[in-house]
Amino acid sequence: MFANYLIGLREGLEAALVVSILVAYLVKSGRSDRLPPVWGGVAVAVALSLGFGAFLEFTSAEMTFEQQELFGGTLSIVAVVLVTWMVFWMRKTARHLKAELHGKLDAALAMGTGALVLTAFLAVGREGLETALFVWTAVRATEDGTDPLIGVALGIATAVVFAYFFYKGAVRLNLARFFTWTGGALIVVAAGVLAYGVHDLQEAEFLPGLNDRAFDVSETIEPASWYGTLLKGVFNFQPNPSVAQCIVWTAYLVPVMAIFLFHKPKGGAAAAAPPSSSSTSSTSSAAPAAGGQANSALPQ
């Protein structure tokens, strides 16, 4: 539940932050009449994410055991790729997310209602699809399929509450620091998902070595115990993993975590620089209050 709470919180906060920035920008600039297209785009994105999760569940139900394992293992690897990309992308853009979104929203306002719907849809849809995929793989990896769903729901609910306070200006959070800490935790979670995906591919007989155990601590760490359940839920820990699972887990976690923690993103200062004169003049003429009140109400 905790691992999926983290997924829901992180992905939900990204989407909720984007929506709160878009809404605040429109309200502060006196364009509240353009809010319905934004909410329409959000609703379509949420519906698409739920539909994608249902599609994965019903599609896998019609497969044989080997096909299910192959399908699940492949999607686990895809989910890890997407989450890894998301972690690094958000670490790079967290500092200048607001300025970037304001520029995109100005362009969408100039293009019309359809562009506003698309902007909100893309902002929420990407996180929604990633969440649906990651949670689906987590549900398959647990005996109690409700725990991941409860965890992600609580995470999304927490994210919505945070976003509301961001909008109201009652909470100020260092986004770069927040996404660094949660990003590191998600890399550990993703390593476990990747190892479990390899296990699925081995059970599907797509990869060899299912019975080549790296170690077996089942008698020491009982899977049914509270600590065994905790390790399984957070890290996808197995007391008797195969050699291939351990190799993949280590080969992913060590270099990815090292790059994430010690490699400074390029272009951070340039991206955080003030917008061009044309963009600035357009924004200031259309919404003189947005640069002051909206910026002060939202996190830097």
TrEMBL record:
> Has UniProt tagged this entry with the keyword Chaperone?
no
Residue span of region Disordered: 267-300
Keywords, alphabetical? Membrane, Transmembrane, Transmembrane helix
Pfam families per the UniProt record, alphabetical: FTR1
Q: Which InterPro entries match?
A: FTR1/Fip1/EfeU
The annotated topology with respect to the bilayer is:
Multi-pass membrane protein
Record flagged with keyword Cell membrane: no
Q: Name one GO molecular function term.
A: ferrous iron transmembrane transporter activity
Ranges annotated as biased composition (Low complexity): 269-290
Q: Where in the cell is it found?
A: Membrane
| Membrane spanning residue stretches | 6-26, 38-58, 70-88, 108-129, 149-167, 179-198, 242-262
Main location (coarse class): membrane
- Domain of life per record: Bacteria
A single Gene Ontology CC annotation of this entry is: high-affinity iron permease complex
Which family is it part of?
A: Belongs to the oxidase-dependent Fe transporter (OFeT) (TC 9.A.10.1) family.
Concerning PANTHER family, the annotation shows: IRON TRANSPORTER FTH1, PLASMA MEMBRANE IRON PERMEASE
- Record protein name field: FTR1 family protein
Q: Which organism is it from?
A: Yinghuangia soli
